[in-house]
M20/M25/M40 family metallo-hydrolase
Amino acid sequence: MSKNRIPRPVTGTLAGLAGAAVLVAATLPGTTATAAPAPTTAQAPAQAAAKATPAKQVKALVSSVNGPGVRKHLVALERIGDKHGSRASGTPGYRASKNYVVDQLRKAGYHPQVQSFDFAFFQVTAPPVLERTTPDPTTFVEGTDFDILEYSGSGDVTATVEGVDLALDDIENSTSGCEAEDFAGFTAGNIALVRRGTCDFAVKVVNAQDAGAAAVILMNQGNGEDRSGPYLGTLGGPVGTVPAVTTSFAVGSELDGDTVRVATSTESETRTTWNVTAQTQRGRQGNVVMAGAHLDSVVEGNGINDNGSGSAALLHVAEKLAKKIKAPKNQVRFAWWGAEESGLLGAEHYVGELAAENPRALRDIALYLNFDMVGSPNYALFVYDGDNSAFPAGDDAAEAPKGSDQIEKAFRQFFRSRGLATRPTAFDGRSDYGPFIAEGIPAGGLFTGAEGIKTKSEAKLFGGEAGAAYDGCYHQACDDLSNVNMKAVRVNTKAIASLVGTYAFSTKTVNGRATGHDKRNATTPLAHDHGHRGATVTATR
């Protein structure tokens, strides 16, 4: 699940509804795939299944999904991560993860389609260093005094720090480094010290590089509590060619004229990654149900909860749906997204390409269901707040497109039917459903918590430890197979199967008598910082 911070690191009764990321979409040549029903030698059972009512077919689908079926895929992803160091987009581990999903879909009878796209890859390969060598030797602490800028270049520089238009007598206003003219007379080979404010960090860093700076220190602006301390920043892409770090206002303001060492070790470049989609061959192409999960991890590790859990659960449901629901009324499309951890890039690319090349296919999407982290070790059962009742549209949530409330209701009804409580989580668009709700597509999904802290009331409802993170290994190397609660995975996978199965036969509760979705329901997702998980925004200016 993306934080956008520097890596420090098929139909049925309503009783059968539950959590799967399902999206209705029409076929887009080159980006989607049809899936033939899985081959069978048992013709009599197949005929019997075809004659069964939708409710019975959905019930059979839900009964068929199980923990071991999901765990098999989790083990495979763990082995891939162990072999390659991570499963992050742009790495061999992601390529292997993509190949695994494609292979499993083919075995289930689908014809998966792989969609490639380029993205800005960034990885920190060694801890950054910021230290003053003279006059008062000081080693500054990463995360407390300074941070590396995302997409910083690599290097190890010891040189004099030279302030650039710092204007410390005007704290409220800063244009430091925003104009090339600010660097007139700058001594090439020095470390440029610029102050945050007015323009993007990328502009300041590129101007400094062009002026011959050997490294760049970007101090906070100093105008208020939220713009004084250490902060996370991004250049937005691989434009940095020299080491670049951010500091608090206090640290930065004392470095002008001192001799300082700045050292960074990064990989920052454009790389290729992939989305994987597969869909049922049968069903209305004008009313597609889509379910998705991001397949990539962060570069720090295997990402087995985030988001191997959602990816494996979705893959298991796809396998079972091919066997249990032979003739869905609506086409069902499954998706595994790349580069979510870099800012929802896979889902954005997919939706953007549909909008540009096949807008009819985009309009035909009835709904989208998202599954990002469904097995947190200290889990809670969260359902996206599709009616904005717990998190009104505003600073903490986006306005949910019409129909999203019914998806939330269906999820909650499924869990109630099993005697399980749920709690809402903000409908903010800070996972792969964001690009879909921006097009007015109703959405919903499930989530079991990230680095946020479980409350006492949640511990009473779900068990686990109050006062501890839902996932203490979130975005860390320890997010491995031992970091997954299979009880949470099992019930969430059944919820996914129930909703996907139900909507495969009817989306009437979501879009009435219409097909597809109403573009007029478009909304604006919040920035991709996953604030509902307590993430810190990575600033661009």
Q: What stands out?
A: Residues 28 and 358 are 7 Å apart (CA to CA). The first strand starts at residue 34 and ends at 35. Residues 4-42, 529-537 have pLDDT under 50 and may be disordered.
